[in-house]
Protein 1
Amino acid sequence: MKVLRLRQIDKPYFSYEDIARVFNISRDSARVAASRYARSGILLRLKPDIYILKEKWPYLSTEQKLLLANLLQVPSYVSLTTALAYYEITTQIQQNFIESIAIKRTKEIAIEDTLFKYNKINPALYFGFVRLRGFFIAEPEKALLDALYFMSFGRYTLDISAIDLDKFDSQKLKNLAKKFPAGTQKLLINCYEHS
């Protein structure tokens, strides 16, 4: 009965307000109910006031998970190998692992079989992303530069041989690279010299 009513919420993730509406109860009562349903395994708590029916989790699309990555840590945008794979620029495929860039903190959030990883970046480098199908994702060139930036500090590994460098806008890449430290720019030059 509870699950049938929760299925009436016509969006993948929902809040206390949505639960209150379908059960015709107060927001406070909905908060208590959500907590109880999460303990009993009907709901997954994604973060305070964001839930999903556990039965829907395995059927989320890639785009829905990328949108969730944005919601789990605000502000953030999807980047690094996750973005490069999304754009089909790398042959590296990540199963149940979504990487994002954030300005608050570096952290990992595990939900069921999926790990959401957030890499903290210098706020001056928090740019170069677009809204695509409802979620924020780095432009291809920025995703590569983000990866090279963290590589320059020994904090990231990227298989350059798996990347199709011809898919980047070389002028855009050069312009964006000027905003990054010298170590990142040097790695970018190395990518093209060894391709």
Protein 2
Amino acid sequence: MVSGLIGLFVFAFLFFFKPFDFNILDYSKLEILGFGGITASVFTFFYCVLPLFNPHIYPEKQWSVPYEILLFVIILFCISTCNGLYINYLNNLDFSWGNYYWIIKKTYGLGLIPITIYVLADYSFKNNKTKHTADGLNKRTRRRDALKTSKRVTISSNLKDTSFVLDESQFLFAKSEGNYIEINTLNEPVKVYRLNLKELDHQIQSNYLLRCHRSYLVNLVRVERITGNAQGLKLYFPGGLKVPVSRKYINQVRTQLVDLVG
């Protein structure tokens, strides 16, 4: 949907404003629409097709304004390359490094400014939205003392005949490390067990524990404060420990806190 709108914008811009000597080259509406189709196709490939083969191509931890601008620079390079081939096809031209440089220069000249404006505006929107969410959740964290529990659960690990007892009232969070998890608790050193987060969550079955990231399972009752930026939320625990919340888990964290304290 978004890729299609971007493609239509490119078509409309080229058709009505006629930059890059389009007033001289005799292109039909359908041929100009081809440039919009190329743009839409490249965006679709990068944002819809490529993630199917590599879901981690846009990692949350690496997202930043420079990272996204770099991504758009690569996308513009692909668009300009395809546009150059398309122009050669329309005009029956052989490949020329001069023409190739011309189309790259024109494409970047047209695309870099609006893309930079978009990325900065997008960053500001995400940053403000997540900070607002963090402020709202911080008000709720101050009303959870009565929810603390002394529930103790025996957890079976993946090592034969090996188990351990987890005191939910002392549990802060678990971090995934390959086939193992690190258990962080109050006033105790970090302990490592052969287990994964899904199995731990299934065995505890607690209303207070929640997956907030593909690598973390947290005890919401023990969260002391919450901060937020464009990349997502961060949960702070006793001892200055902090855990990231991926953007896709923000709504779940918020909903769970609302359910716990009303």
